[in-house]
Amino acid sequence: MGMSYNHRRGFTIAEVSLAMVVLSVAFVMLSQFIAAATQQRRVAEQRRLALQEAANQLERAAALPWSEVSLETLADEKLSALLLQASPQAKVLWFVQEKAGPPVAKRVRVEVAWPNAAGQFVEPIGLTTYFYPPPWNREANASRSPMLREAQP
User: Fold this and answer.
1) Domain containing 38: what range?
2) Cα separation of 23 and 27, whole Å?
């Protein structure tokens, strides 16, 4: 009496091998997906930090008096430690263009650039704003402006 195939228990070597191949392919695909997601997260974080840095740089520029908003003054601004930690080779680029008007204005653009993993600089993140002179001449109108009056003794 031979053993019947209808009563066998367990798997054949072919079935086990096929299952291992299917699981291996699934594992390779999953690991590639995780690697790509990690890379995209890193790029998104660098872009977020660059955008935050550009906004902070423009905020510092907005705190300057109108006469000091120039390429020479703005070029001295330092990058934040947080951005330098994430992208040590990051750099900031300033562009200042005076507009004759009307109204008279200064167009200020700040760009933050950094290299990718291959060492090539990616497209920079940039923000642009316009700065306008104060609406009055401070010396001539100090007596009319309640904000600029000196305290009376």
Assistant:
1) 7-131
2) 6
